[in-house]
Amino acid sequence: MKNLRVLHVVRSLDPRAGGVAEAVVQLVNHMLPYGCVGEVASLDGPDSPVSDRLQGTVHRLGPARGTYGLSMNAVRWLRAHAGDYHAIVVHGIWQFQSIAARYGAGRSGTPLFVFPHGMLDPWFQRTYPRKHLKKRVYWALAERWVFRAARAVLFTCRTELELAREPFLDRRMPLEVTGFGIAPPPDDATGGAAFLAAYPELRGKRILLFLSRIHEKKGCDLLIEAFAQVASRHPDVRLVIAGPGDDATIAALKRIVQARGIESQVVWTGMLSGAVKWAALRAAEVFVLPSHQENFGIAVVEALASATPVITTDCVNIWREVAASGAGVIVKDTLDGVGSGIATWCDTVGPAEIAEMRGRALDCYHREFRIEGAARKLVKLIAGTEATPGEYGAAFASPPGSNA
After folding, report:
1. What CATH number matches the domain at 193-368, 3.50.50.60, 3.20.20.70, 3.40.50.2000, 3.20.20.80?
2. Is the pLDDT of residue 397 over 70?
3. Is the distance from CB of 173 to CB of 124 less than 8 angstroms?
4. Predicted confidence band at 385 (pLDDT cuts at 50, 70, 90)?
5. What CATH number matches the domain at 4-183+370-389, 3.40.190.10, 3.40.50.280, 3.40.50.2000, 2.40.10.120?
6. For position 132, what pLDDT does the model report?
7. CA distance linking residue 121 with residue 259, whole number of Å
8. How far apart are the first and last CA of the chain?
9. What SS3 state is found at 19?
C-alpha cells in the first residue's frame, strides 16, 4: 500500500515571509504520521532559506520575477510532475503560484485544493480600495479559474470562511474548515532564561511582548501609542517588539517611540527564532497582538502554547476561543481599545491572576489549537477516507492523477 503523496505549492518558504510559510511547515510535518508524504514547490531562488524543521523535499522553482512571482520554470516543472502526486495544495493567492498550480493540476487530473490563508478577508477591500479594484479584475481574469477547479477551498476556522464569502466566493464553491494549529513547543525547564541571557537588561522587568511580522495590519502604531500612555507610571514595564519588517516601517515606528519619550522602555530585537523565540514567549508577562486582521494568528497560538496570556483584538479570527477560555483580554483594534487593554493589565492584573491565566492559556492551546487535528482532517479530506496514524486506507493506494 502506497503512501499518499501531496505537493504543497507556495510563493515562498522563507521564514521571514510570515505565517503562510510556517503553515506549510506545520502541515507537511504533521500530515506525515497519517501516511501523507509532503513535498513543497516554492517560487524561491535556489539559495533561499527554508526552515530546518521541514520534514519534506523542497523544490525551489525560482527565482521568480517581482512581487507577483512570475516563473515559467514553475509552470514547466508543475506540468511535468503534477501527475506524480495524489493531490496539490496551493497556499496563498493573488500571486503566480496559484495559477502555476492550476496549470499543473489541470493537465494531470490531480485534485487541486486551495488554502487562501486569510487573503480573501474583506479588511483588505476596506483598507486598500484601489488594490481591491485590481483584485476584482484579476479575480475575473485568472484567480476565479483556480477556485472553480478546486476540489475544495480550505479555511482555518469558521470565522475566516464566513468573512471570505463577502468579497469573492459564491455558493457553488466547495468550502471546508480543516482548522489549524501548531506543534507543542520544545520542552525547556529553563523557561525564559535564553532570552534573558540575550537581553540582560530585561531581567526583573515586566515584559509586554509583540512577536510577529512588523506590518501595517499588525497595529504596531496602536501598541506603541497605547504603551506610551502607561509607561511613565510603570517604570518596571518593558515593551519588547520582536519580528522582521521593512526598514521604512520600523523607522516610522521608532520615530513614534522617540516622540513619546519612551525609548528607555522599548526594546527592539529583530526577528527571533528557535530557542530564543520560545524563551521570549515564556519570559513575557503577556503577549500583545493588536492586529486589524488575522485569519488565524499563529503568534497568538504560540503564546498560548507557551502558557503566556494574550491581549489581542476581535479582528483575530480565533478571538472567540481565547475569550471563552479566559486566556486573555480581547479589545477593539483602536487606540482606545488597545490602550484600555494595556492600561487595565498594567494597573490591575497581579501575580496570582497572571499565574491562573497562564494555566488557562495552556489549556486553551491543548483543547483548541494542536496541529494534529487539522493535519488529520486535511489528510482525510484529500484521501476521502478516515485517517489514523499508521493506517493509510484504500484511497491512499490509488495511483497519482487518478482523482481518487
Report:
1. 3.40.50.2000
2. no
3. no
4. low
5. 3.40.50.2000
6. 85
7. 34
8. 14
9. helix
